[in-house]
Design a protein that fits this description.
Chain B: It is a peripheral membrane protein. Chain B: This is ABC transporter ATP-binding protein. Chain B: Keywords: Antibiotic resistance, ATP-binding, Nucleotide-binding, Transport. Chain B: It holds the Pfam family ABC_tran. The complex is a heterodimer of chains A (267) and B (343). Chain A contains twelve helices and no strands. Chain A is an all-alpha fold and 267 residues long. Chain A has one domain. By secondary structure, chain B is an alpha/beta fold. Helix content of chain B is 34%, strand content 28%. A six-stranded mixed beta sheet of chain B has the order 5-6-7-3-8-9, sandwiched between helices. In chain B, strands 4-1-2-14 form a four-stranded antiparallel beta sheet. Chain B has a four-stranded antiparallel beta sheet with strand order 11-12-10-13, with helices on one face. In chain B, a hairpin with a 2-residue loop joins strand 8 and strand 9. In chain B, helix 9 crosses helix 11. Classes of the chains: A mainly alpha (267), B alpha/beta (343). The interface between A and B is medium-sized, with 31 and 35 residues.
Chain lengths: 267, 343
């Protein structure tokens, strides 16, 4: 039964999307346009140069296209379905999260699992098309593919917790729009969505090492294209795992504090 | 399981920061915030028996919603205690959640993007209701609330009445012995209101559920509640049957008499004042706190004067409540007191 309620809760977002075909069309269009533009941009940038920042043209294009596809893994689909913490605080419906025998933190996590699986289906479809069209390179070996998969899962966990902190902020500030703009920009820049971190100066790369963002995307993608060799993978995976544990403990603490706040805002 | 509710000496104080007016005031509030304590509820005690429908009444800001939040486990009281179906709600929130259902006005707990039936299925799994039981209850609710005509529609496309009916069903699908309804029919048309009232009557009389209802709709109170608890300024003002409230605060009756002698010398009777006289037409009304009931006044007028016609106007419950709120104190925000540093 517990599995069943997990399944029902997890499929809320995918089901909502399936009931709204225009949203799916928009996602398809956006992904197609982004992949084409990003691939063209990086081919253009490499047209008069060879290896830059330790990346060949094929590696750079593969990294950039995979970054676009991975960004689909967890988008804020909840917003259209009025199921974000921000919206629940605004409408006062957050109280219902605390009136069910399913703890709010578990509900939030189950919803995210469903969203990420749904996003993964999109990313996987896009990856298959790009691979068949020769836009991205395949992983160099089965070992690389395995390490990449593990690193991607850890990276998504780190990303979930980072975005959860943003959601939890609503319990104190009701609105998190400004924080969201800052955090999403930082996440995209420091995780290497805009450009691989290898192109940034050394001090920037060093600074990024102390933040959780590069663990979300830069590490798994660098492992995939071979910019981080397999011999360095255990250390990178360990850093990702440490971030997962730290952020898990921090967000658990925030959930406890949030439970005391829910009554005075939006209740 | 007994669905009784016990509330003993319940108090809840909120600490908030006062925002001073104007630009300079805002800057001062930023640098030197002034904190105040707001006593939302003070020393409230009452019981609701299993299978009883109690109306919790009071003006805006009286403390009704705070009381309900404590009883649903969302809020922990500052002092006092509460038990709902034998469970202390704020200590065992999840256990309490299985015993209660709640509808908060127009705030829906349904999933906006999904058809209503999908929301019901999610709740069925969250509350771990067996499939056959769920289907039977849904069938029963459909007969009472006509849900099947719109339960395949996505929630975002429902009318207010359809959504509230769906929310009522959602709140009761796990068969809770206790139900909290915070202004459930606000903004609904009269037909749907009546349908909802009939549903609630059925849930109390046939299913034995305990219902705690807050509303500003006095028709709803008259149709549903036999007993009311009245709170104002966070304090309990009255706890008793509806008739008692009428007796205590409903002395706004008028007796209209047509006297046989148009020139009779009309004088006030004990506790009865002469409000108007126009020839043989005389209007009597209550005079002072010891005024008789309307029926006692009627008897007194007939015994004292020879009348050819007589009629009575009793106060509407809304007038009675207005009088009750007024006597219980002015309608205002909860009392605020400065708080010592570090409070």
């Amino acid at each position: 039964m517990a599995l069943l309620h997990a399944w029902r809760t997890a499929r809320v977002t995918p089901l909502g999307e399936l009931h709204t075909p225009p949203r799916m069309t928009a996602v398809l269009l956006r992904l197609t346009v982004q992949v084409v533009l990003v691939a063209s941009l990086w081919h253009g940038l490499y047209s008069h140069t060879g290896t830059t920042a330790g990346l060949s043209e094929d590696q750079a294009v593969t990294y950039a296209v995979l970054a676009v596809l991975a960004s689909r893994l967890r988008e804020l689909d909840q917003y259209a379905g009025r199921d974000t913490v921000l919206q629940h605080m605004h409408f006062g419906t957050i109280v219902y999260w605390y009136l069910r025998p399913l703890p709010p933190q578990r509900y939030h996590a189950l919803r995210a699992v469903g969203e990420q699986l749904y996003g993964f289906a999109w990313a996987l479809g896009g990856y298959a098309v790009c691979l068949a069209a020769g836009v991205v390179e395949p992983p160099r070996s089965a070992a690389v593919a395995g390490v990449f998969a593990l690193s991607l899962v850890l990276g998504q966990l780190v990303l979930y917790f980072v975005m959860l902190v943003l959601d939890q902020l609503c319990f104190w500030t009701v609105r998190n729009t400004a924080a969201a703009l800052i955090l999403i920009f930082a996440q995209n820049l420091l995780s290497g969505v805009y450009a691989p971190l290898w192109f940034f100066p050394d001090w920037f790369i060093t600074m990024s090492g102390f933040l959780p963002f590069q663990a979300t995307l830069s590490v798994p993608l660098s492992l995939y294209i071979g910019r981080i060799p397999l011999s360095d993978a255990p250390a990178q995976l360990a850093i990702q795992a440490v971030w997962v544990v730290l952020l898990f403990l921090f967000t658990r603490f925030l959930w406890r504090q949030a439970a005391r706040r829910v009554i005075s805002q939006g209740g | 399981m007994s669905g009784s509710i016990e509330v003993r000496g319940l108090s809840r104080t909120f600490h908030t920061t006062v925002r001073r007016p104007g630009f300079l005031g805002a800057v001062r509030s930023l640098v030197n915030p002034e904190r105040v304590a707001k006593h939302a509820v003070r020393d409230i005690s009452f019981d609701v028996a299993a299978g009883e429908l109690l109306a919790l009444l009071g003006p805006n800001g009286a403390g009704k919603s705070t009381t309900i939040k404590v009883l649903t486990g969302i809020l922990t009281p500052t002092s006092g205690e509460a038990r709902v179906a034998g469970v202390v709600p704020y200590e065992e929130r999840e256990r309490n959640a299985r015993n209660i259902g709640a509808v908060f006005g127009q705030r829906t707990q349904l999933w906006w993007d999904l058809p209503v039936r999908e929301s019901f299925a999610i709740l069925r799994d969250i509350y771990e209701v067996p499939k056959a039981e769920h289907a039977a209850r849904l069938k029963e609710f459909d007969e009472l609330l006509d849900l099947s005509s719109f339960w395949d529609t996505r929630v975002r496309h429902l009318s207010l009445g359809q959504r509230v009916r769906s929310d009522l069903a959602a709140a009761l699908l796990h068969d809770p012995p206790v139900v909290f309804l915070d202004e459930p029919t606000i903004g609904m048309d009269v037909v749907v209101k009546e349908q909802v009232r009939e549903f609630l009557r059925y849930q109390v009389s046939e299913r034995g559920r305990t219902v705690l209802l807050t509303t500003h709709d006095m028709t709803e109170v008259e149709r549903l509640a036999e007993r009311v608890v009245l709170i104002n300024h966070g304090r309990l003002v009255l706890d008793g049957p509806l008739d008692e409230i009428r007796r205590k605060f409903g002395s706004t009756w008028q007796v209209r008499a047509t006297l046989a002698d148009a020139h009779a010398d009309v004088v006030p009777l004990p506790g009865i004042a002469v409000l108007r006289q126009d020839g043989p037409q005389v209007v009597f009304g209550p005079d002072g706190p010891d005024a008789p009931t309307v029926h006692q006044a009627l008897k007194a007028v007939i015994e004292r004067y020879e009348v050819t016609g007589i009629a009575i106007d009793e106060a509407e419950l809304e007038d009675v409540m207005r009088a009750a709120y007024a006597q219980a104190g002015p309608v205002a925000e909860p009392v605020a007191e400065p708080v010592a540093e570090g409070a």
